[in-house]
Each structure stands twice: as structure tokens, then as C-alpha cells.
Amino acid sequence: MIPGILMLGLWSCGRQADSAGSISVNQFGQMPDGRQVDIYTLTNTNGVTAEITNLGGSIVSLRVPDTDENLDDIVLGYDNVEAYYTSNFGAIIGRYANRIADGQFELNGQVYTLAQNNGENHLHGGIKGFDDVLWNAEPVESQEGPALQLSYLSEDGEEGYPGNLDVTVVYTLTNGNAVRIEYSATTDAPSVVNLTNHSYFNLAGEGNGDVLEHRLMINADRILEVHPDLIPTGDSISVAGTPMDFTSPMEIGARINADYPPLEYGNGYDHCWVINRESDELALAARVTEPSTGRVMEVYTTEPGVQFYTGNHLDGSTVGKRGVPYEQHFGFALECQHYPDSPHHPNFPSTTLNPGEEYTQTTIYKFTTQ
Q1: How far apart are CA 359 and CA 96, in angstroms?
Q2: Cβ proximity of 323 and 179 under 8 Å
Q3: What φ, ψ does residue 258 adopt, rounded to 5°?
Q4: Spatial separation of the C-alpha atoms in residues 282 and 249, rounded to whole Å
Q5: Which of 158, 159, 303, 335 is catalytic?
Q6: How far is CA 57 from each of CA 3, 253, 348, rounded to the nearest angstrom?
Q7: pLDDT (tens digit per residue) in 165-216
Q8: Phi/psi of residue 150, each to 5°?
């Protein structure tokens, strides 16, 4: 538990508390306008815990075992709620994850103007994205393990996006030691939607050095080609023979400083891999192993792409849990999503959502040891 927070209540998941785990809720702090921020602790039958706050739907901590069954927190974050006001560590990202070129898009003949908060481009939903809002939260029953449902109504015109978008995200901490994230959304007017989770992982334990010796496999033969500002050109390129080839396990740091233009554009890895898949069902996107602890993380998703990011802009000025400065490459993200800038590329899988349709996606982070 994060120290200094007050226990408010306790739930068990239905009548099968012993087999399904439990959820407790504590006060985490307050929003600047005085609204209470809560933090929910999900505990499965193995003693694995996930702490999730209704501020941004952020995963604040995730404690999983190593080969000796020692539990460590493996997600970067903070000890206090105030730091989450200006950070997207662990958060739900929307309405549109990743970048939209020039901070605008056209839909049904109408141009919509968005914030330009990444140079001339729009990033992660704008100035106040889904990571900065207070979500409604309630425990829900699941046979897989403790589950928390978060909901938010993004009103028409919020951050420039059209339509009232009704969003639901369900986090389930399964008794198989996986975090299952299920997203759904509906709209009353045509809009664009692309949601993801923005957790930074370090399988050696958050704050315990960089992730460059983690070994990564990405189930993708191609990446999106990008301009220097990381906006896609509309084409994909083969990873074969390049530092972007993770089709076989490779240390993250082995080629991160290679003389290769896409790496220079992102100051490291910050690119979208095109997942190898045969259907829209769950597919393996990536597998990461950490040699010193034996922890393994597998990522499964229904999404077409995964953005792999290596904490390139962490520089020690970000102070995380226990007062530890987060230096460059202290964490990595594997953000399952539709492709960046899809509204400008008709050849990309569509991110348009119309009334009467439902946006859905599922991503699973599963933890084992080797």
C-alpha cells in the first residue's frame, strides 16, 4: 500500500471471495477542485496486487513475483496524487493515443482542430486527455479475478473532438497473474477513437536501474515508416536487417544507439510495430524477459499495432516512488493501439466510430517466470 492513505472500505468479488480475490479502496488525495481521488487495490488468489486510481485510470503499482516468489512493484509512478496531475504514467490514453499530424483531422467533410501539444502535432488526446480526468469507478464481478470498472463521458467538443463519447474500461487482475484491460466506447456523432494504457515497466523492479538488459521479442515483421517528427508516412517497412528487428529475443539496449535514422528521430525506440496476426482475435504482440529476476511479461491484444517506447525523455528530473529519480531508459512501454495518425491515412485500419457502433479492444499483460 502507498503510505499515509486511509482505508475506506472492502469488497470481495461476489460470493467467491476466496477464489476470485478481493478489492479494497482507499483515499489517495484530492483534485485541485476538491473532488476526492481514490485508489483501489486488487488482490488475486496468489497475492499479486494492482493499485489503480480513478484519476486517469492509472495503474499506480503492480506487484508480481520473481523466480524466488518475491513480489516487487514493476511499474513506474509516484507516491502522491499531485504528481499524477501532470503525468500519464500508467494512465488510460484518449481520445486518441499517439499522434495526429498538424493537430487536425477531417471527418465527413468537416475539419476538426485539436491542440498542438507535440510540436505542430497532437499527442495523447491533447492538453487534458483521459489521463487527467476523474473517472467513475466501481468493482464488478468476474470469475477470472478481482475487476474494477471505470467509466467516463467525454463531452462533445472536449479537446476539439466531436460527439459525446461514452467510455468504459475494465481492469481485471486474473488469478493467472495477468492484467486484462477491456475498453469499449460509443458515440452520438461520428468521431475518432484510439485508446491504450501508458504504463512504463521495469521487470527488475521500478527504480532499479535501466531496462536495457531486458530481452524483448516483438511479434512483428514490419514497422510504420515515419517522418522525423514520428508522424507515419503511410507506408510500412520491413524490420529485417535493422535495429528494429525483435522477431527473435534481443536485449533492448543492444542496438538502441545504432546509426539508424528512425532511432535518431525518437532518441531511441518510439515506433509502432505492425503485429503479425491472422484475425481480429487476441494475438501475441510481445514477450519481455528480465534475466536477474526471471520475470517474463507477455502482451496479447486485439489491436493492429504496438508502440514500443523506451523512456527516452526521462532525464532524472522526474522523481518517482521513494524519491528515486527516473533516468533515461528506466522503463519501457508496450502500448497496444491502432496506428498513429490514422485519420490521415485511409489505408490504415480505421479509427472512425459512428453512432450505433461500439469501439472495443482488449489487451492483456501476463506475468510468469522462466
Answers
A1: 12
A2: no
A3: -65, 155
A4: 21
A5: 335
A6: 20, 30, 28
A7: 999 999 999 999 999 999 999 999 999 999 999 999 999 999 999 999 999 9
A8: -115, 140
Is residue 290 annotated as a catalytic residue, yes or no? Answer: no
- The values of phi and psi at residue 81, to 5°, are -70, -30
E-only strand ranges, 311-358: 318-319, 325-326, 333-337, 352-353
CA distances from 215 to 12, 66, 69, 287, 292 (A): 37, 16, 21, 8, 11
- The residue from 122, 124, 159, 198 that is catalytic is 198
Residue whose C-alpha is closest to residue 266's, from 298, 289, 300, 243:
243
Q: Burial code of 258-290, b = ≥16 C-beta within 10 A, e = fewer?
A: eeeebbebbebbbbbbbbebeeeeebbbbbbbb
Handedness of CA 142, 286, 54, 114 (dihedral sign): negative
Distance CA 315, CA 325 (A): 8
Query: Tell me, what amino acid is at 3?
Result: P
Can you spell out the DSSP letters for 65-79? E-TT--EEE-B---S
Length of the chain equals 370
Distances (CA, A) of 358 to 61, 166, 185: 30, 10, 6
Q: What is the pLDDT of residues 72-120, one digit of tens each?
A: 999 999 999 999 998 999 999 999 999 999 999 999 999 999 999 999 9
> What's the CA gap between 2 and 51, in Å, rounded?
9
Ranges of the chain whose pLDDT falls below 50: 1-18
Q: What is the pLDDT of residue 86?
A: 85
* Known catalytic membership, residue 106: no
Which amino acid is residue 261, in one-letter code? P
